[in-house]
Amino acid sequence: MNDEKKQALEAEVYSYVGKPIGPRVIGRDPVNLAMIRQWCDAMGDTHPAYLDEEEAKQTIHGGIVAPPTMLQAWIMDGFEMAKGYDEPQNEQQRLHKLLADNGYSGVLGTNTEENYTRYLKLGETVESSTVIDSISEEKATGVGIGYFITTKTSFENQDGDDLGSMSFRVLRYKPAEERPSAASGGSEDAVAAKPTRIKSPMGRDNGWWWSRVSEEDCLPIQRCADCAKLRHPPRPMCDDCGSQKWDSIKASGRATIHTFTVIHYPQFPGYEYPIVSIIVDLEEGERMASALVDCKPEDCKIGMPVELVIQEDEDGFKIPFFRPAD
Ligand SMILES: [Zn+2]
């Protein structure tokens, strides 16, 4: 997408901010025991205030009430919602279709926040109105570039009594693997480089460590220049004597696996899965996080001896890993 097209798309996207998504929604059924019962069955909630008329009378509610977390359920459209966005029925669906039609085909719910003003009683009708509250600038995320869209919904009963509110955020994104590549004949401005590993932040306290890994193909360990205590990860001060003077040594590269976990998901571009993520005890006594290579996940064992191997990514980035020791 060229700059002009992108600007036009964003102008249209941001025109949705502040818009109500459609007319006020009126719950299809008043608050009723059958739906409460099904919700409680699904959630494993057996509180008598929700289910038992006699016992509920003895509570501060004076009768059956609905679980507060059901608030949104009362205004849901049911199976209508499964139809998707091909023929958008409201502004929210039109916004999603606009982005989907422009390559942002992925959608992920990222967070929701609900506020409950009070318990609902049997026979009340829930009504809601929803506004597109905000749309972020385009963000680069682990799953691809996209926009975070936040909607805000307020809930009232048939008399206009405040029942609560909900804020709901989704990420609408261009899945990373669908980005055009040179090989698939994408135009020049659309060519995306093959993603590489995410780099550690490299600041004043740890930048030197990564430089030394890269320049000397070694695993450095920081050492207090006053008391000679080793420390990892790198930090400005010795936690033993308080000295801020330090130098570093080269680790032997021999270590044993202290613990490990095998990562299958979520999968980020630039990595090969599964990843055997390990914590090793270095021969020098320090502990560090790394990954095990040249080893099947099922062969990884706690206490296993491993040795250092420096790997270089296609972009020249070097990183210390471990492999089983002979
Ligand atoms: Zn010290």
Task: Indicate the structural class.
Answer: alpha+beta
Shape label:
elongated
Portion in strands: 25-35%
Oligomer: single chain
- The gyration radius over C-alpha positions equals 28 Å
- In terms of per-residue confidence, which ranges show pLDDT below 50 for 5 or more consecutive residues? 178-191
SSE order in H/E notation?
HEHHHEHEEEEEEHEEEEEEEE
Mean pLDDT: 91
Total number of strands:
16
* Ligand kinds: zinc ion
Q: State the end-to-end distance.
A: 52 Å
Helix content: 10-25%
Largest sheet: 6 strands, antiparallel
Question: Can you give a write-up of this model?
Answer:
The structure is a single chain. This protein has 326 residues and is α+β, with helices and mostly antiparallel strands. 16% of the residues lie in helices and 33% in strands. It is built from six helices and 16 strands. The protein has helices spanning 3-14, 33-43, 48-51, 53-57, 91-101, 207-216; strands at 25-26, 65-66, 106-116, 120-121, 126-135, 139-141, 144-157, 162-175, 220-224, 230-231, 246-250, 254-263, 275-282, 287-292, 305-312, 318-324. Strands 1, 3, 5, 6, 7 and 8 form a six-stranded antiparallel beta sheet that branches. A five-stranded antiparallel beta sheet has the order 14-13-12-15-16, with helices on one face. A hairpin with a 4-residue loop joins β13 (275-282) and β14 (287-292). The longest helix has 12 residues, at 3-14. It is elongated and about 75 Å long. Mean pLDDT is 91; it is low at 178-191. Bound molecules: zinc ion (ZN).
